[in-house]
Amino acid sequence: MPAKKASTSTEDGHRLVIVESPAKAKTIAGYLGRGYVVESSVGHIRDLPGGAAEVPAKYKKEPWARLGVNVDEGFAPLYVVPRDKKPTLKRLKDLMSDAGAVYLATDEDREGEAIAWHLLDELKPTVPVHRMVFHEITPEAITQAVSNPRQINDHLVDAQETRRILDRLYGYEVSPVLWKKVMPKLSAGRVQSVATRMVVDRERERIAFRTAGYWDIVAELDAGESKDPRAVTVRLVNLDGRRVAQGRDFASDGNLREASRDVVVHLDRARAEALQGALADSTFTVRGVESKPYRRSPYAPFRTTTMQQEAARKLGFGAARTMSLAQRLYENGHITYMRTDSVTLSETAVSAARTQVRQLFGQDYLPDKPRVYQSKVKNAQEAHEAIRPSGDRFRTPAETGLRGDEFRLYELIWMRTVASQMRDAEGRSVTLRVGARAATGEDAEFTASGKVITFHGFLKAYVEGVDDASTETDSAERRLPDVVEGDQLAATRLEAAGHETKPPARYTEATLVRELEEREIGRPSTYATILGTILGRGYIYKKGQALVPTWVAFAVVRLLEQHFAHLVDYNFTASMEDALDEIARGGSNMETWLARFYFGDGGDASGANGGTANGGTSNGHGSNGHGHAEEGLKYLVTELGEIDAREISTFPILDRDGGSESDSGIVVRVGRYGPYVEDPDGNRANVPDDLPPDELTVERAKELLSQPAGVERELGVHPDNGLPIVAKAGRYGPYVTEVLPEDAPKNAKPHTASLFKSMNLDTVTFDEAVRLLSLPRSLGADPDGGEEIVALNGRYGPYVKKGTDSRSLGSEEELFTITLDAAVELFKQPKARGRRAATAPLRELGEDPETGNPVVVKDGRFGPYVTDGETNATLRKDDDVESITLDRAADLLAEKRAKGPAPKRTAKKTTKKAAAKKSPAKKAASKTTAKATTATKTAAKKTTAKKTAAKKATAKKS
Question: With contact defined as beta carbons under 8 Å apart, do 305 and 319 qualify?
Answer without folding.
Answer: no
